[in-house]
């Protein structure tokens, strides 16, 4: 057992106490963000890529279909598909309202919040139990209880905060988040009042709105991450977009957090993700195979119902016996799996096929290591014990599509069996390469790329703002090739006064 604890301890020592760094930027109209721990990318987020990313928004909906046998209803709320509303997602006084004798019937207008955005062919999950989330306080207008975050474990602090929660909302409806620990009552009261005003404004907008209109919109990606992250654990927040920086600066000042010195405005000529070395790690997400530092590797296989992860020893042969080699490989795999599911934003049921181990203590230690590493995940995870066959099943709360739907699209070459990088992501990579070219001192950038990708960049005018502003003194020439694979492109710089280019070369915009 001492050897097991020592092995796990050595794995963790390399990242203990390492600071987090956050990166915010924009690509066209899309917000992108990344979180790095111990030099490794652990989270990537994008909004605007997925137009149906509506989680947290509140709409005026109309009940269009009641399913009494399922204790549920379908609600038209403005989405492509009607949203699903279960009886459990209705306020207490409307519980069971989908039965004939209760007060929610077909044709009724209801205020609904998207609790889970549409994923694939499934419509949104809706709730009438509204929530307004702040950095330290969650306001639940229809709730009759007060609660404290489970991550606050000190009993005296929990009692103090619970007393304050009841002072804020004597009739209930408040949850104090982890960030509330150590805060003054006046700060919590100010935030609670702001959230309550949001609810009152939403109710007022609801009365005048048409069915399908949004009456409350969640903050953008950058605002949500700054709200939900414990910034005391963050070393720096690099922001490449001027508008996002102004919003973050205002948020930090209004929160009186004293953390403004952590904000860094990135103004470099190179794409920020490329400059900080994040782009290769981002590209690695699009593959199914993940290499471990020991020579072992993981294989990810996503199905409609679940995600399967296979652990393989690969080139790792170890220094002692087979059991020890397998145990160390599985420990490394457990840590990397926790990082990858968080980075790829994989949700739902996940099955891990670890390499078989004879020792029951080893099996328990690997499962415990996986569970311990998953605790750093902001999404709720539940890990079951390892079976005798080396299988571990765990769940991760699924709120939105995983990053594969953001960074890839179905492969046109294999009949849907695989995927390739999406047009948006490929255009982002081209932009990054062109900016690097100009940062290296070139006046002209010559891009050779797939003809379909060129058509997308040209028709969407993806780089038009850059051409008008940052690149106004530069020239970008694009040479489309029908024979190029979709993700194949090259960028080279040239400072010649006279360029020799093929007839099909086109000056961008």
Descriptive notes:
With 509 residues, the protein is an alpha+beta fold. It folds into 5 domains: 20-50 and 224-278, eRF1 domain 2 (Nucleotidyltransferase, domain 5, 2-Layer Sandwich); 58-127, OB fold (Dihydrolipoamide Acetyltransferase, E2P) (Beta Barrel), CATH 2.40.50.140; 132-216, no CATH class; 285-396; 422-507, 3-Layer(aba) Sandwich (Hypothetical Protein Ychn, Chain: A), CATH 3.40.1260. It has helices at 2-13, 155-168, 185-208, 221-228, 242-254, 272-275, 279-284, 322-344, 360-374, 403-407, 423-439, 451-460, 464-468; strands spanning 20-27, 30-37, 40-47, 58-67, 72-76, 83-86, 109-116, 125-127, 132-133, 137-139, 146-148, 174-176, 214-216, 234-239, 263-265, 289-291, 297-302, 306-312, 348-353, 381-383, 391-396, 408-410, 419-421, 444-450, 475-481, 489-494, 506-507. The strands form 6 sheets. It has a 6-stranded mixed β-sheet with strand order 16-17-18-19-21-20, covered by helices on one side. α8 runs parallel beside α9 (360-374). The model is unreliable at 94-102 (pLDDT under 50).
């Amino acid at each position: 057992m001492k050897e097991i604890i020592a092995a796990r301890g050595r794995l963790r020592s390399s990242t203990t106490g390492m600071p987090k760094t956050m990166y915010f930027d924009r690509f066209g109209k899309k917000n992108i963000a990344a979180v790095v721990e111990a030099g490794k990318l652990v989270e990537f987020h994008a909004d605007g890529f997925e137009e149906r990313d509506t989680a947290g928004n509140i709409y005026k909906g109309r009940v269009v279909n009641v399913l009494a046998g399922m204790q549920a209803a379908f609600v038209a709320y403005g989405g492509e598909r009607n949203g699903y509303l279960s009886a459990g997602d209705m306020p207490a006084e409307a519980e069971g309202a989908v039965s004939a004798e209760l007060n929610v019937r077909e044709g009724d207008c209801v205020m609904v919040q998207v609790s889970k955005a549409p994923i694939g062919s499934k419509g949104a999950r809706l709730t009438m139990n509204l929530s307004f989330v702040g950095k330290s306080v969650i306001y639940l207008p229809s709730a009759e209880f007060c609660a404290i975050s489970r991550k606050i474990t000190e009993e005296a602090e929990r009692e103090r905060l619970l007393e304050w929660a009841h002072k804020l909302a004597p009739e209930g409806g408040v949850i104090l988040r982890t960030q509330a620990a150590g805060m003054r009552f006046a700060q919590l009261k100010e935030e609670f009042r702001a959230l309550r005003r949001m609810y009152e404004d939403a109710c007022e907008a609801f009365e005048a709105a048409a069915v399908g209109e949004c009456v409350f919109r969640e903050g953008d990606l950058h605002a949500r991450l700054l709200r939900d992250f414990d910034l005391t654990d963050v070393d720096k927040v690099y922001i490449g977009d001027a508008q996002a920086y102004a919003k973050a600066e205002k948020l930090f000042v209004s929160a009186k957090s004293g953390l403004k010195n952590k904000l860094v405005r990135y103004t470099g000529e190179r794409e920020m993700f490329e400059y900080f070395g994040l782009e290769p790690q981002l590209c690695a997400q699009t593959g199914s195979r993940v290499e471990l530092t020991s020579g072992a590797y993981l294989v990810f296989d996503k199905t409609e119902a679940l995600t399967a992860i296979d652990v393989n020893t690969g080139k790792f042969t170890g220094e002692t016996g087979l059991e020890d080699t397998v145990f160390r490989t599985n420990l490394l795999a457990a840590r990397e799996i926790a990082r990858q599911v968080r980075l790829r934003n994989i949700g739902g049921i996940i099955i891990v096929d670890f390499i078989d181990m004879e020792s029951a203590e080893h099996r328990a230690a690997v499962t415990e290591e996986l569970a311990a590493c998953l605790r750093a995940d902001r999404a709720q995870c539940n890990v079951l014990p390892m079976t005798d066959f080396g299988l571990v099943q765990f769940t991760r709360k699924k709120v939105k599509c995983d990053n594969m739907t953001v960074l890839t699209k179905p492969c046109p070459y294999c009949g849907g069996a695989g995927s390739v990088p999406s047009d948006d992501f490929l255009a982002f990579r081209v932009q990054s390469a062109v900016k690097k070219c100009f940062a290296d001192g070139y006046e002209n950038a010559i891009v050779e790329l797939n003809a379909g990708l060129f058509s997308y960049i040209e028709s969407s005018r993806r780089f038009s703002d850059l051409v008008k502003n940052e690149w106004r003194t530069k020239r970008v020439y694009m040479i489309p090739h029908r024979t190029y694979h979709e993700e194949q492109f090259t960028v080279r710089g040239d400072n010649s006064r006279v360029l020799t280019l093929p007839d099909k070369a086109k000056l961008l915009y």
